[in-house]
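User: Show me a protein chain along with its predicted structure.
Assistant: Here is one chain, sequence first, then structure tokens.
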Amino acid sequence: MTQMEIIMIIKKGVVKMKTWNESEKDAFSYFQWFNKDEAFERVGMNPNLSVFSVNGSGLFGTSKKNVFIEVCSSEIQKIFIKENFLKDYMLYLFANVEVKDRNSRIERYKKVWKLVQSKWQLNEFNKGPEIETEIDGKIFFSSIAGFKVENLSTALQIISSNPKRYTIIASKKDDVLSEKMITNFFEIAFNQHRSRIDEIDYFGLAIHLCSDGDVVFRWGDSAEEAEIAIVFSRDMLTFFSS
């Protein structure tokens, strides 16, 4: 594991905000809930996955969280811009909105993007179709929007607001915004194996998508700590740890 520490002090009280980067060769060691036996059962192999993450502590209050998101965006942008291999990738926001009232015309009108756009500016996002899906008797609208790395901070703000329903995926595929691909992502993310109902199964996304060259982002936080972790095939590790 490698670390780079960036100490940031916000002059309000004595609490320090600290951020650092980590890279781990084995994602199954990084995430305790990644299980090799389960991976083999679900995809017929143990995929070689690695992790790069930007971490933060002392994130008390909205202002520090916003600063941390900007740090995350900057660190990830540097990697994607620096490495020629990663220039072939497009970033995608994967969004899922549950319909609370099946008979609500407003919910069915807003679907995904009108709801998200009421809070964040998405003019620079290339929005895909909004697909109605159902899992465990609950109706969702799901969609994917492509965006450039320059708009990463906005996407991070969105996924940090509800990582159970929003995430980011990077891919070189040219059909990610198709109805077929959106449905496929939803079926993987909200599958019967997930441990928590109605939450994105990041393990499932990683073991299904990363072996095919895709990259899965995961936002995690608790109290005053947070991280954005990026899971990818191990043969890409040098691009994230250089």
